[in-house]
Amino acid sequence: MRYSDRGGGLSAQERERRERLRFRAADMFAGEIAPAQVARLLGITRKSAYEWYALWRRGGRAALASKGSGSGRKLTDEQLARLEEALEEGAAAHGWEDGRWTTERVAALIAERFQVSYTARGVAYLLDRLEWTGRFRLPVRRTTWRPGRQGGR
């Protein structure tokens, strides 16, 4: 199970606490206690109890184990350095005739070089973290004004 938090993840202690809670729920499910009752007994939402119950039915107790920190980092420091070198070579050096990097093109480069999948948004976050967003021009999405719509020009 993964939980998203604004602070970028949970502490190891909080992950362990939540995993223990899920394991208590699994034990209750095994004892034929209904998910709604498990929610009341453990002080969790019914939605969580039913999600955990579905996971437990498919994969047992192991399906409720913590999946780790979820740090979001997919590339090692060495791979990031190699990515920056490739970006510095320019998009034309990697087969794009117009020579522009886009987030989609960077995602394709990462997939080809490192066999790691990134979304365009994920690439944008990665480039921002690497302080590359100002080093080359990414296409800007512009809204189109339509007659009769408020907020237009």
TrEMBL record:
Q: Which Pfam families match?
A: HTH_32 (PF13565)
Extract the InterPro entries matched here: Homeodomain-like_sf
Q: Which domain of life is it from?
A: Bacteria
Q: What is this protein called?
A: Winged helix-turn-helix domain-containing protein
Q: Native species of this protein?
A: Streptosporangium vulgare
